[in-house]
Each structure stands twice: as C-alpha cells, then as structure tokens.
C-alpha cells in the first residue's frame, strides 16, 4: 500500500512495521505531550521530547525531516543542481548532484560534467568518461529553494553525441528552418503502471490474484477502484512546481495504471519536459515504496497495455484548410509505418494487437474518433476542418526525443515518390 504523500511537518509520526495495535496520534495526545514538556520547563535539546513521543504506541519520528526540509536561501547563495541523463537502456534515468556557486537562469550558465559511462552501459571500462551537457532547467520540487533539476544529454570527450544520445539528433531536426516555421506542437499522454515492491504485481491487486474485470477503474473513485491516487496527485503538483507543462492526469483502464499529459509543447521542449516528469515520478515512487514501470504490456491477458499517445499539429494544420494538411501528413506516416514502429518503444508488439483500443502493429490505419486506429483524428478537428492528429502507436517506454522529431521529419521534411504517394492514397481511401 502506498504511503500517502503530503507535506510533512517537523514532527511527523509514522507507523513502524512491527506495530499491530497502534492508533493515530490524536490532538489530545499531542497536547498531553506538550503539556508534560512545558511543566518541566525549557529543555536544553529536543531529545527528551523525542523520547516521550517515541514511547507512544508504535510510532517513531523521522529525525531527518528537519535537515531534508532546510531552506538554505537565507544562509548561502550556493545551490544544488541535480544533473539528470538517460542511461544505457534508453529508458533508465540517472542523476547526481553538484554545488553551484549561485542561482542560474539558463543552462549555458552551468558547467559541463562527466560521469562513468562504463557503469551505465554507455562506454567501455578502458575509456569510460562521458560528458554531460546541460540542456534544460527545472525547479527542484524535492529540495525546494533555488535548487534545480538539470536535463542533460551525453557526449564523448571529443564532443560527439554518444549512441544513446537521441536528443542531439532531435535538436538538429527541430533546428531546421522549415520545421521552425511550422511551430510543431505536441501533447504527450504518458501512461504508467504502479507495482507492489516485493512481488512486482500491480498496486491494489491481490498478490498472485486478479481484481474484477476492467470497466469501473478508468477515471474511477473509491478504495476498490483507485490505487495510487496519492502518487498521481503528488506527481501532478511536483511537476507544476518544477515548471513542467503538465496539463492533466487521470486513472487508466487497468487498475493500478495512471496517465498524465504534458503539453502543448513546442519542438524539443516536449522531450525535455517528458524526461523531467519521468524523473520526478521515479523519485516520488521511490519515496512511496512503490515500483514504477513503463512496460507497454505489464500484465498479459485481457488487460489494457500502456501507451504514450502523441498528439501533434503544425501551424498549417491549425489554420483554415488544415484538415487537408493533416490528411497529407497521415499519408506520409502510412508510408513510413515500419520506420516509426521500430522507433516507438521496446515490447510494443505485445501491446499493439488490434485489441484493447489499439491497432495491429502490422497494419497502418486512421479514422475519425476511432481509438482502434494507428492515427486518430478528433471529431472537433473534422468539424472545424483544422486541428491535430493523435499518433496512438508509441509505447509507454518510447523516447520522446525520437517520437517527436520523427513525426516532424516524416510530415515536414520527408517527401515520398509520386508513385508511392498515389498507391498510399488509394489504400487510405479504402481504409476510411
């Protein structure tokens, strides 16, 4: 069961694992303890109070809270910067901290830093130094104050992007003037699943068993329908604090599964914000004692998988006549379906089966308001004749730098042959 995440007070009480008869620390009990302390006169330290409090049934005091919540701002200009990067698997986030002499406003003010790439699967042991380049800054919701989170990408000492650095290639595409002129917007729906720590089984599910079938859990409320709301809400607020462009959250179809949305974001910012939000979610689940998984199909059988649907539009799509531009983009996407699928996340074949609100991984399709298609166009877009498309193929563990830049490349920079375009147009006409 996840611990409820809430702002902690200096004297927060927690139940120990050995307690079986503990009762909540009531206001009356607190008053009694404080009264006893006051009658004895001022104490030289807080030790006596801690002893008194720890004698109440099954409760201990987290003695680190005071230090963890220290506000350094009145005492020093120095701040803590948490450098965050993507590890060798392409989905794991790594981080380490360093002291910066004063608050900063732009990544260019931060120094480059190195790490041991041989320990993250990104460099050989005999030449293990990898260099971090700061790229985006967010406020740190864990340390508060002027402290920051820093999204970085990774390079060799010679300045070449390492193979797992997908941000560098995405930045090149988004720096293309044709792409810049079209101001690509992204809204990314990140689904994820919460697992119990020891058994790696979804949160709220009976160990070794299954809950009732899907139906009541999507956007549901109640102890028998919603599992992990405290984590979702804590993550929501932490992202807003950090400056991440999070736009909403909801419980998903499979119990123990949640979704949050980031956007609309422009260009490379979409990837930076998703990776920062994933890091924050990892940290919150760490503190709550729950395991986060971005596996696209964490439970086999009649259960929904986890995707990362990517809503996309360009300036031309958002203007009058944009629906025809959207259709042309869909045509291009149909011709590069294999390229996109291969880049849309590991294990996606277990999710894209044609069931559970997905299209088959082997067949490209599109439709209006159809969640069983590769590309969905909303009713409002059809009605207004302009708007956006939703690519429903990306898996929950996709790399947002790859997906966002590939969408821009395919729809704005790539040109099919006339023969291929004509054939694809015929197929899509039959599909609709």
TrEMBL record:
Keywords on this record?
Answer: ATP-binding, Chloroplast, Ligase, Nucleotide-binding, Plastid, Transit peptide
Q: List each copy of the GS catalytic domain by range.
A: 163-432
Q: Which GO terms describe its biological process?
A: glutamine biosynthetic process
A single GO molecular-function term is: ATP binding
Where, per UniProt, does this protein localize? Plastid, Chloroplast
InterPro entries cross-referenced by the UniProt entry: Gln_synt_N, Gln_synt_N_sf, Gln_synth/guanido_kin_cat_dom, Gln_synth_cat_dom, Gln_synth_gly_rich_site, Gln_synth_N_conserv_site, Glutamine_Synthetase
According to its UniProt record, which reaction does this protein catalyse? L-glutamate + NH4(+) + ATP = L-glutamine + ADP + phosphate + H(+)
Enzyme Commission numbers on file: 6.3.1.2
Name the family.
Belongs to the glutamine synthetase family.
Q: How does it assemble?
A: Homooctamer.
Q: What is this protein called?
A: Glutamine synthetase
């Amino acid at each position: 069961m996840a611990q409820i995440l809430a702002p902690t007070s200096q004297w927060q009480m927690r139940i120990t694992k050995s307690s079986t008869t503990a009762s909540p620390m009531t206001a009356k009990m607190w008053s009694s303890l404080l009264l006893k302390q006051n009658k004895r006169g001022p104490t030289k330290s807080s030790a006596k109070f801690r002893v008194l409090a720890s004698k109440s049934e099954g409760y201990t005091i987290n003695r680190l809270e005071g230090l963890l919540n220290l506000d350094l701002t009145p005492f020093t200009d120095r701040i803590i910067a948490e450098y965050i990067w993507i590890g060798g698997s392409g989905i794991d986030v790594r981080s380490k901290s360093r002291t910066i002499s004063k608050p900063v406003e732009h990544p260019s003010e931060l120094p480059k830093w190195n790490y041991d790439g041989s320990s993250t699967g990104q460099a050989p042991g005999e030449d293990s130094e990898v260099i971090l380049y700061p790229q985006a800054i967010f406020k740190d919701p864990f340390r508060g104050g002027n402290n920051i989170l820093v999204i970085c990408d990774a390079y060799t000492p010679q300045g070449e992007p390492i193979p797992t650095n997908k941000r560098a290639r995405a930045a090149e595409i988004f720096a293309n003037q044709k792409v810049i002129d079209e101001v690509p917007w992204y809204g990314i729906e990140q689904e994820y699943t919460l697992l119990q720590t020891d058994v790696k089984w979804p949160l709220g599910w009976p160990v070794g068993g299954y809950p009732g079938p899907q139906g009541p859990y999507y956007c549901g409320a109640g102890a028998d329908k919603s599992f992990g709301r405290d984590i979702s809400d804590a993550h929501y607020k932490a992202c807003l604090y950090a400056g991440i462009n999070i736009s909403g959250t909801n419980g998903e179809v499979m119990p123990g599964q949640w979704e949050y949305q980031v956007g609309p974001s422009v260009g490379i910012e979409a990837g930076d914000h998703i990776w920062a939000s994933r890091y924050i979610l990892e940290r919150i689940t760490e503190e709550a004692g729950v395991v986060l998984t971005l596996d696209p199909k964490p439970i086999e059988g009649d259960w929904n998988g986890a995707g990362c649907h990517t809503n996309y539009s360009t300036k031309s799509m958002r203007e009058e006549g944009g629906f025809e531009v959207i259709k042309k983009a869909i045509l291009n996407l149909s011709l590069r379906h294999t390229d996109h699928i291969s880049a849309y996340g590991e294990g996606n074949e277990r999710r894209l089966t044609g069931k559970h609100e997905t299209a088959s991984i082997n067949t490209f399709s599109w439709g209006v308001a159809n969640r069983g298609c590769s590309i969905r166009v909303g009713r409002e877009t059809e009605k207004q004749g302009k708007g956006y498309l939703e690519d429903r193929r990306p898996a929950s563990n996709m790399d947002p730098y790859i997906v966002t830049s590939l969408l821009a490349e395919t729809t704005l920079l790539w040109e099919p042959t006339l023969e291929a375009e004509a054939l694809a147009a015929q197929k899509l006409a039959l599909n609709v």
